[in-house]
Amino acid sequence: MRIRILILCITFFGVLETQAQEKKWTLRECVEYALENNIAIKQSALDVEATDIDRIDAIGNFLPSLNASASNFWSSGLSTDPITNENKTQTFRSSNYGVSAGVTIFSGLRNIKRFQRAKLNKLLSQYNLGKSKDDIALFVANSYLQVLLNKESLKVVEKQHEITLEQLQRTKDLVEAGVLPQGDLLEIEATSADELTRIVQAENAVQIALIGLAQRLLIKNYEDFDIAEQEYLVPGSEMLEKPIDQVIAQARESRYEVQIAEQNKLIAEKDLEIARGAYYPTLNGSFNYNTRESGAKSFARVLDANNPVLTQSIGVVEATGQNVITQTPNLLLVEQDAAPFIDQLYTNDGISYGLSLQVPIFNGFSARNAVKRSKVNVKRTEFQLEQAELDLDSNVYQAYLDAKGAAEAYEAAQVSVKAQERAYEYAKDRYDVGLTNAFDFSQSKFRLENAQSQEVQNKFDFIFKLKVLELYFGIKIADIKL
Q1: Which residues in the chain show pLDDT less than 70?
Q2: C-alpha closest to that of 44 among 132, 150, 111
Q3: Which InterPro entries does the record associate with it (predicted)?
Q4: Which of 64, 204, 386, 473 is 20 to 30 A from 166 via CA?
């Protein structure tokens, strides 16, 4: 029983491994995998996380600062007692404790501007992330279509070679029967050998394209990597029926290039406002609480219990000659131990609070130059925004013309294939009855093969250029269906 279970497990996992090796990647799977694993996209995602930290920093500027401090010292020799401020020659321990709080009440509204800038910067990082995803998705789609193109080109050559092999056998029969000369057979054999060479070249092109796509997906198992075999129909050309002005207007609203330039301009304007905040006074509030204690012994005057009163003569009455005396407490200087730790903390504590105002008068032109540099940067970002809009209009218009030209080229290739197919059938019929030689027949077949290859190339070129135009129109790669 255990042996059967073991055999079943081995068979089950073997099937899973075979299925994993035979996985065929669709375009959507390739794009989604690239969006999840591409290093550039991961870096852009980290930039978004970094802007979240900057936003929290900007919020923290509104909050008061709170700090605590503690210190402990040992002193030996002539030292100052922190409690009595007396210089004593002794060894003792002392400590200080404090809590301080500070808050910026007004700083030229710079904290508010920094918070607004942090929000703009986060939005900018999100736009950069979106642009990275679009660029990677389009790049992967182009590589995927290149694999499809090479595979279709391979199929064309293989199909033509099958026809050549059939014609080769027919030619052999006719040569043996004495209907055709030996030269016709040699011509067909040469054509077959040439096609075998082109099949090998086409197979290599497929493998190179697959390796390139796998590298873009960061997949290292090149040998087992392959894409799904399915028929990719030419999409409808509804996009080409839209007015070019509508496509450009939609691209301005949806494309990240213009949005990124707009955000850079807004951030530059916010930096200018922050720089101007240095012209205004800064008002800060503060609160401090501190206490201290000391382990140093102290000296105190204590009433002598045995002789509490001292009687002293302070003068004589001139008239009577009587002595004038006075009595004072008899105080003795006695060394005492330090007060308890907690008692000292309560006794020696203190509080301070207040406001501080800083008014900028002259700072070596630093504030003024910072404002000037910010103004220059604002102008620069305005030009960059204008250039981004011009580039986008030019790119959309170019993509529109490219897609339209690719559609016309594909239609022309279809017409050419039909014409070459009729010409090939005519040449084949003439060759079968001996009205034409093998060379002319091979040339007709070669022209048909070239027309079919050009049709395949124009087909995928049109698909890709139409996808580029749809991307400009705001249709994401993930939503594009082939």
Answers
A1: 1-22, 81-85, 179, 230-237, 298-302, 304, 330, 332-337, 476-482
A2: 132
A3: OMP_efflux, TolC-like
A4: 204
All residues at 6 or more sequence positions from 377 whose CB lies less than 8 Å from its CB, including other chains = 268, 271, 272
Distance CA 341, CA 390 (A): 76
Return the closest-CA partner of residue 482 out of 144, 238, 237, 235. Answer: 235
Burial readout 281-299 (b: 16 or more C-beta within 10 A, e: otherwise): ebeeeeeeeebbbbbbebe
What is the spatial distance between Cα 107 and Cα 61, in angstroms, rounded to a whole number? 11
Residue 217 to residue 35: CA distance in whole angstroms: 9
* Cβ proximity of 130 and 255 under 8 Å: no
Measure the CA–CA gap between 147 and 26, rounded to whole angstroms.
12
User: CB-based contacts of 283: which residues, under 8 Å, 6+ apart?
Assistant: 104, 105, 106, 107, 355, 356, 357, 358
* Both tokens assigned to 363: 């700072």
Integer Cα distance of 87 and 80 in angstroms: 4
d(CA 461, CA 30): 19
Nearest CA-CA partner of 480 in 227, 246, 146, 137: 137
> Residues in the chain, how many?
482
Taking only the tens place, the pLDDT of each residue in 131-144 is 898 888 888 888 88
pLDDT digits (tens, 9 = 90+) for 49-95: 999 999 999 998 888 999 999 988 887 777 776 666 677 777 778 88
Of 65, 66, 71, the residue nearest 97 (C-alpha): 71
The half-sphere exposure of 195 on its side-chain side, counting CA atoms within 13 A, is 26
Q: Using an 8 Å Cβ cutoff, are 478 and 137 in contact? A: yes
Closest CA to 40 of 140, 147, 117, 144: 140
What tokens appear for 194 in the block? 């040439």
- Say how far apart CA 244 and CA 396 lie, in whole Å: 8
Cα four-point dihedral sign 193, 194, 195, 200: positive
Specify the long-range contacts of residues 383-391, CB closer than 8 Å, at least 24 apart.
384/261, 384/264, 384/265, 385/258, 385/261, 385/262, 385/264, 385/265, 387/261, 388/257, 388/258, 388/260, 388/261, 389/252, 389/258, 389/261, 391/257
